[in-house]
Zinc transporter, ZIP family (Paracoccus solventivorans), 271 residues
Amino acid sequence: MEIWAVLLLALLPGLGNFAGGMLAEFGGASPRMLNFALHAASGIVIGIVAVELIPAALEGLAGWWIALAVAAGGVAYVLIEAGVERLQQKKGTGTDRTSMWMIYVAVAVDLTADGVMLGSGTAVSLAFGVTLAAGQVLADLPEGFAAVADLRENGVPRKRRIMLSASFILYCVGAALLAYLLLRGAPDAAKLAALAFAAGLLSVAAVEDMLDEAHEAREDTHGSVLAFVGGLALFVLVSAGLETVLGDDPHDPAQNEAVRSEGERSADPAA
C-alpha cells in the first residue's frame, strides 16, 4: 500500500504546478505578479532545503558526505542547463526562446527533484513524505504560474502551453516512483544522500533560474523581498504544523529507530 501513498504524494506537487499554470492561463499574469510568484516559490524551496532536507541528512550522514551529495546535485543541474543552452544555440533560437526553455527546464528539473525527494523521503518516513509534499504544493503553485506566463509571453500557442504544463506531472511522479523503488530497501545513508542530492538540485534551481527569471520579469521591489520571506516563513509554519498534527518527527533518530524496529518485529513471524 505504501507505493500508492508515494504515487499520491507525488501527484500533489505536479497538480499544484498545473493549477498555478491554469491560473496564469485563464486569470492573467502581470510582470509584477510573475516577479512576486517566483520570489515566493524560491523562498519556499529554500525553506524545504534548510528546514527539512539538510537537517534530516545531518542526523545520519557525515558532513563531508552531505557536502558531496549537495555538490553533485548542483553540478547535475548546471550540466543539464548547459546542455539545453547548447541545444538552443545549435537550433539558432534567440535569447527569448532560450529563456523560455530554461524556465521550462528549471521547473521540470525542480519537479524531478521533488520526485526524488518525495520518493526517498517517504522511504525514510511516510510523515516526512507528507511534509515534503505539502511544501512542494505551496512552491509549485507559483512555479506553474510563472512557467505558463513565460510560455505565453514567448508566443507559445495555448494548446501547447497547457500540454507543457500538464507534462510537469510526469517528471515528479516518475522520479518519485523510481527513487522509492530503488531506496526502500537501501541503507539509511543512501536515502539521506538522495535527500542531500535533491537539496543541491533545488537550491540551484531556486537561486539561479527562478530568481533570475523574476528579475527579468520586473525589477525587484521591497514587495519582492517580502514575497521571498513570506514563502520561507509559510513553509516553516506548514512544516511545524504538520509535524504537530502527524506526531512524527523525522529528525529524531531515536523515534525513527523505534519505528524501524517495530516494522522489523512485525515482519518477523517468529517475533
About this structure: The first helix runs from residue 2 to 27. Confidence is low (pLDDT under 50) at residues 253-271. Residues 2-267 form one domain. The chain has one domain: 2-267.
